[in-house]
Amino acid sequence: MEAQLYYRFTFYITPELVTIATRMKKGEVDIIDWTLPPEIVKDLEAKEGINVEYDFIDTTWFLILNNRKPPLDDKYVRKAMAYAFNYETVIKDILVGGVRAQGPIPNKIAGHNDNLLVYKRDIKKAQELIQKSKYSKKELAKFQLDLVAVAGNQNFINIGLLAAANWKEIGLNVNVKEFRWADICQHQAKPETAFHVTVFYQSGKVPHPQQFLVFYTPEGWGTAYPPGGMYYQNPQVTDLVGKAKAASSIDEQFKYYGKVQELIVDDSPSLFLHNTLLSQPIWRYVKGYEMPAGAFYYQLRFDKFWMDTSDEFYKRNHARK
After folding, report:
1. Peptide bond preceding 71: is omega within 30 degrees of 0, i.e. cis?
2. Domain boundaries, the chain
3. What is the assigned CATH class of domain 57-276?
4. pLDDT value at position 4?
5. Are 149 and 174 in contact (CB under 8 A)?
6. Is 148 within 8 Å of 186 (Cβ atoms)?
7. Cα(23)–Cα(152) distance, rounded to whole angstroms?
8. pTM for the model
9. Which of 35, 40, 175, 287 has its CA 20 to 30 A from that of 299?
10. d(Cα 177, Cα 80) in Å, to the nearest integer?
11. Do 295 and 205 contact (CB within 8 A), yes or no?
12. Residues 182, 88, 162, 105: is their CA dihedral positive or negative?
């Protein structure tokens, strides 16, 4: 009878970023979460024995807007917000990197339209657009927009604070709040309770346009999930998504999806930030890590991991445990 090897995995929930990094450097943990800020990642990368795996993944970051709540029910206000936001600061300073998103679907997913408008920070254009809205400058100043970020996630919070500062330049007052994930999802189920703005990322677990576009149709409204609180409506988008689902060929389907993406980008029902550069700190003796893995988080297939017990860092780290 063949001998079988069994591994025991221990998971630690540690909210403090500094504590996570300290435990990793001390060898108290073997692999940690990928969402750390760039300065911590660079510090870990400089530590002998720790590798940082960098991989672009099919995950898009958004600022989800509640299109039903004033003043975000006005297309020109939303477009002004898109032009006022500083996307490069998120990529370079808040996260470890990424590439600008081109619309609602991750850039590498089949059916993505590669010829879309990409909003870039242009404060002058943003100010011109907001003057076209149905709301006067005085009316806009009275609104208090709630922007919600997942509690304890510093990356989400920093993106929210950046948005608030950028949108202040065009006369919008934004309050950044922290909520638990479950509470955010619960609020999104009704247009009255859904937040004005929600920081969110969506991974391509199912690499198909429909996974992302459903939230831009009534079918996705009220879903207990951040984009379910978008409540965006464009009859032409809804019609074309339906035609795409019923199409008899891939080419026909992608033609419809391509037009849908153009219409959505023009209406700016949410802000399309960037596609993620994943940075995964891992001790060099952990073997079996592979990217791409087929879907987001599948790179953490613990059933495929094994430890090189002959490695000097393994001996040192695990002698303490």
Report:
1. yes
2. 17-55+279-318, 57-276
3. alpha beta
4. 58
5. no
6. no
7. 18
8. 0.90
9. 40
10. 22
11. yes
12. negative
Question: Average per-residue pLDDT in the chain?
Answer: 93
Residue type, 124: K
CA–CA dist 91, 98 (Å, integer): 6
Q: What angle do CA 195, 196, 197 make, to 5 degrees?
A: 90
Query: pLDDT tens digits, residue range 114-152?
Result: 999 999 999 999 999 999 999 999 999 999 999 999 998
Q: What secondary structure, in 3-state letters, does the chain show?
A: CCCCCCCCCCCCCCCCHHHHHHHHHHCCCCECCCCCCHHHHHHHHCCCCEEEEEEEEEEEEEEEECCCCCCCCCHHHHHHHHHHCCHHHHHHHHCCCEEECCCCCCCCCCCCCCCCCCCCCCHHHHHHHHCCCCCCHHHHHHCEEEEEEECCCHHHHHHHHHHHHHHHCCCCEEEEEEECHHHHHHHCCCCCCCCCEEEEEEECCCCCHHHHHHHHCHHHCCCCCHHHHCCCCCHHHHHHHHHHHHCCCHHHHHHHHHHHHHHHHHHCCEEEEEEEEEEEEEECCEECCCCCCCCCCCCCCHHHCEECCCCHHHHHHHCCC
**Cα distance between residue 210 and residue 241, in whole Å:** 8
Sorted by sequence, the CB contacts under 8 Å of residue 266 that are 6+ apart come out as 117
* Distance from C-alpha of 202 to C-alpha of 234, rounded to nearest angstrom: 22
